[in-house]
């Protein structure tokens, strides 16, 4: 009688003593010799979980069973073969149909009798129930820890874990977190990342900061004294925030303000060619960092266009409303100065991060996220992590993916025709004064968005003589 062996080990079990492929094979071989059987082929699935039957050697084994290439299949333990009662019944039916016996080295099963088949099914069902029951117990424990403010896994950047397992403030890193939130009101995530890198400050997991890492930090409600908590029990998606007892680094008001700013910046470029206001996606307040929104007022003499600071509208700023015609005068009067400054600025930008290189980095990280997702799923299938831990890990990966996709989209929000060179920007600035009043409002907006990513202004004077002053700008 010929006996073949099936052995399997998942990635999470590689280091576990007694689970190695070599150890399983040796125990199975010794068992076959003790029975006086002939040793057949050894089927190995290295690094695969038993969540389903879609494993290379398992598929080959099933084909060989149907070809009657051996008489007995030997495994070290039942869970090396399957972890699902459904899969177990499917295999037993295939074995029975082709008169193949099944033996476990560490468990006594007789699949040739009805009682034996019932017993093995009960064992499989009990094992599956215990895994699911364990997941529920772990889930309840995690919920209790969340409510107590205890961190599952590492602490958020700006915190550390004390001897009681609770998150407390790391004063040095907390200063960085507060600076990032404050800076997000005045500048973009990529600029924040550049400043942090120039100062030699490591990102939360080491290495350089990127725009996506900054965005991920800014969206984390942990800094308001809350915990993100999974409420969708049947999937990986929806979270809500619940109060925790760990100390807040950022007020809820400031956190919400930053979320609004991020939303507007993310959506602004998409509307760049649909708005009726040439400065509406690039004009920002020097005082509070908020964007300006365009508005219009119709009267007997025609239409008056003006811009209002969003911070003023929310009651957090006192910047005055500015007329568009005065804003245009200020811009055209400073064109020559902007041209000279732009030559220097654009030259220095030449050695900054190359977009193509960053795109490759993003694509590589997205691939790593996919691999990590598979790893977490396999770890769960092999009971290395609980269901709640799986959901938390999958949501973390989803958030990282969304931040990367947002950064990726930022490279593509400006149409190709506006992807211009340094010389083209300088030429556009030189011609702006001559052509401005010959352009339609849509064309005015297009050319401004081709040159500038941001223009910062302050206001001087009293009504009705409010004058806008350009204090800073960022070229595209």
UniProtKB/TrEMBL annotation:
Residues 2-149 form the Resolvase/invertase-type recombinase catalytic domain. Residues 359-414 form a coiled coil. Residues 156-268 form the Recombinase domain. One of its GO terms (molecular function) is DNA strand exchange activity. Keywords: Coiled coil, DNA integration, DNA recombination, DNA-binding. Pfam families: Recombinase, Resolvase, Zn_ribbon_recom. This is Recombinase family protein. It comes from Thermoactinomyces intermedius.
